[in-house]
Structure formats: C-alpha cells, structure tokens
Design a protein that fits this description.
Layout lengths: L1 E3 L1 H9 L4 E4 L4 E4 L5 H11 L8 E4 L16 H9 L5 E6 L6 H4 L4 E6 L3 H10 L3 E2 L1 E2 L16 H5 L3 E3 L11 E4 L5 E3 L1
Parallel strand pairs: 1-9, 2-9, 4-6, 5-10
Antiparallel strand pairs: 2-3, 3-8, 4-7, 5-6, 10-11
Length: 186
C-alpha cells in the first residue's frame, strides 16, 4: 500500500486499483465502478455481498448522467434531489444504462451522491467520472473516522491511500429513496 497524491490516485484507478480516501464523515474505499475486477476485489476486502449494492460519488450531476435516470423521477422529487447537491445526501435513483449489476446489486436503483467534500470532488473531477464510495471497514465493523482508525488488515489489501481530512459530518451520509422520499439510513 502506498501514499497517493491526486495524480497517482488517478493512475491507480486506471490500473484497476482500490484505494482509501476521506469523505464527508468517514474514510471510504473507492475504485472505478466500470471495472468489475476492481469492484469484486473491493467487495472481497470489505467482506460485503454484491447483492447489497454500492454507493457512487461524483463531483457534479453531469458525471452521473448515464448512471442514473433522473427523468424517471417526478418533477418535485427530482427538484429535491438536485437541490440537495452538492452535499452529504445520498439518493437511490433508478439505474441508468451504464450502471452494472455489480454496482446496483439486487436493486433497480443505484445509490449516488454529489459530494461537497473538496478532496472527493477534486478526485472525481480529475477522474472525470463517478467513483465507488463505500466506508473503509469490513462488514459489521465500525467505519474509520480517521486515518489512524483504518483496519491494518484492510490497508494491506489496498493499492494506496489518498491522505486528507474527513469532513465535519458526525455520521455517514443519510440515504433516501428518490422516488418515495423515504429515509433508508439516517
């Protein structure tokens, strides 16, 4: 596992790597959502079943255009989603043509967020697209709120760490269903 700067993080992603980086509240694991092998490796590191699906994070709504179907939302629901971004709001939106099964799991929708976290947004801008963003912990373990809390066993399986500070959010982002508005995770 090596220390990454923004340029080497992008190179890592292009090579199918899995890395850790800080997000709004906790440390996250990320990889290219189009790379099945990278996503499979990330899921194995987390010991997370593919059926649960994964969150993707982006720098702006344009990066999610073909990944989600905003047009499938009623006007008022779409407005609420768009008005909440960028920010610490994760929405499950009907999946678009680019979203593979290994990202959405057993669901028809995909969980996405347009992040206001400066490092996450810079990473997605440099990558020119969305990234997988799931908490950097093994299933059932608490998420790491600081780099020092990252599981050493998990770190051994990563290709790199993009250092930085987490945001000031006290817990992982709220997840809501964009069609119903229902909160799935507080």
């Amino acid at each position: 596992m090596k220390e990454l700067d923004l340029a080497s993080a992008i190179a890592c992603l292009h090579q199918g790597g899995v890395m850790a980086y800080p997000t709004e509240a906790v440390w996250g694991l990320g990889c290219d959502p189009r790379n099945h092998a990278a996503v499979s490796r990330l899921l194995a590191l987390k010991q997370r079943p593919v059926e649960k699906g994964l969150i993707m994070v982006a720098a702006d709504i344009g990066q999610l255009q073909r990944w989600v179907r905003l047009d499938a939302l009623p006007d008022d629901r779409r407005a609420e989603v768009l008005d909440s971004w960028p920010g610490p709001n994760t929405w499950i939106i009907p999946a678009g043509e680019l979203t593979p099964e290994w990202i959405r799991g057993e669901h028809a929708g995909v969980a996405v967020r347009v992040s206001a976290h400066p490092l996450v947004a810079a990473l997605c801008r440099a990558w020119q697209g969305p990234l997988v963003s799931t908490s950097a912990n093994r299933a059932g373990e608490p998420p790491a709120r600081s780099r020092d809390q990252l599981d050493p066993v998990l770190l051994q399986g990563l290709d790199g760490v993009l250092d930085g500070a987490t945001g000031e959010l006290g817990q992982p982002t709220r997840i809501r269903d964009a069609l119903s508005g229902d909160t799935l995770r507080l």
